[in-house]
Design brief:
The chain has two helices and 15 strands. The protein is mostly beta strands. The radius of gyration is 16 Å and the shape is globular. The model has no long low-confidence stretch (mean pLDDT about 95).
């Protein structure tokens, strides 16, 4: 397993090692022991799976507030997507900054997104599968969002924003400046 820092504090790119031959390949997409060996310990309790039928589908930017905040380990099962994390921890040196990783079945890249971050993705191919682990259960009363196209954040989604496919919830999300983050950076 290869782990790389991203441009935003505490978000990590994780690339599992693949073992391949003429049949295909095998990899451990997650190993609690390997994570603990490098000082990362999470009790993942839920796996989530989505499929987006069309390219240009945006899901996000979402978060779950305390007491049910979530760390996520995100990967792409099929297709291709751009996964995005935005730091919303008050007092963080990277508050309001974003990082992203292009994920696909072929490259195997994953993002480890800690509590205190917005998370979202855009599909770059039809029928893209997004799979992620979380260390707390979904709690609708703690669910929240910030606009995916907030100019203050300035995410480069790599698509024409006029043709984006979006849920009503995401379309109605507030801007970062109108949002009081429940997260505090603890450095």
């Amino acid at each position: 397993m290869k782990v790389e820092k991203t441009s935003v504090l505490d978000v990590l790119a994780v690339i599992p090692q693949r073992f391949g031959d003429e049949r295909g390949f095998f990899c451990e997409s997650y190993s609690k022991r390997r994570f603990e060996d490098i000082g990362l310990s999470f009790d993942f309790v839920q796996d989530n799976y989505s499929i987006s039928a069309k390219a240009g589908t945006v899901r996000g930017l979402h978060f779950q507030a305390p007491p049910h905040a979530q760390t996520k380990l995100v990967r792409c099962g099929q297709g291709r997507l751009l996964d995005v994390a935005v730091d919303i921890r008050k007092g963080s040196p990277t508050y309001g900054q974003w990082t992203s990783a292009e994920m696909s079945f072929e490259n195997g890249v994953q993002l480890l997104i800690p509590k205190g971050f917005l998370h979202g993705f855009v599909t770059l191919e039809p029928n893209t599968e997004t799979i992620y682990k979380s260390d707390d259960y979904y709690a609708p009363e703690c669910d929240g969002a910030v606009r995916f196209d907030d100019p203050e954040i300035g995410v480069d989604w790599g698509i024409d924003l006029k043709t984006v496919i979006l849920s009503d919830k995401d379309r109605a999300a507030p801007l970062l400046k109108d949002f009081d983050s429940p997260f505090v950076y603890e450095g």
